[in-house]
Amino acid sequence: MRKVLNVSVITLAFCMVAVVLSAVAIGYTYGVSSVPPVPVAPVPTEPLNQIEQTPEPQEILIDGYIAVPGFERLRAEGSVIQSPGISNPSKNDCYFIVSIIMPDGQEIFNSPILAPGQSVDVIELPNFVNPGVYEETIARYSCYSLDEMKPLNGADIKFILEVLP
Fold it and tell me: Any idea which fold 54-164 has?
């Protein structure tokens, strides 16, 4: 009887070791992820307000692939804006009419019809526009077909208008 008891104890001990080793193997398998880590985008080392911004107009494409010049800021000396950057890129197949709309919704400029390749050289602001900084000013680009002047897609570009005394 003693031999049977020793065999039972040895078998029980063997089974317990097998269970522990199985648990360790399962824990290791599920604890280690088979999914590679997601790369993290680099964080800029400079504060955001010190990153250079280009003052030049940038072209924005809208539906139908119409190139629209955009800008962040226009500066008026008195009531005149020289070379405002309002143009119709020559690669477009449409006319533009460009309006400048103040943050309160009042339109202060309306361009003539601009054919592809034409631009506005000078903008004269109305007398009621006081010196100041007007954020959220809108340059509204209305686009029209070359053949029948049918309205096409347009774009509103927000910018800062700075009027100096």
Answer: Immunoglobulin-like (2.60.40)
